[in-house]
Amino acid sequence: MAADYLWMEGIPLYTDIITDVRSLRDEFAVRDEDVITLSYPKSGTSWTKEIVNLLHAGGDPSWVQSVVSWGRSPCVETREGLELTKKQQDPCSYSSHLPVQLFPKSLFTSKAKV
Question: What sequence ranges are listed for the domain Sulfotransferase (predicted)?
Answer without folding.
Answer: 32-114
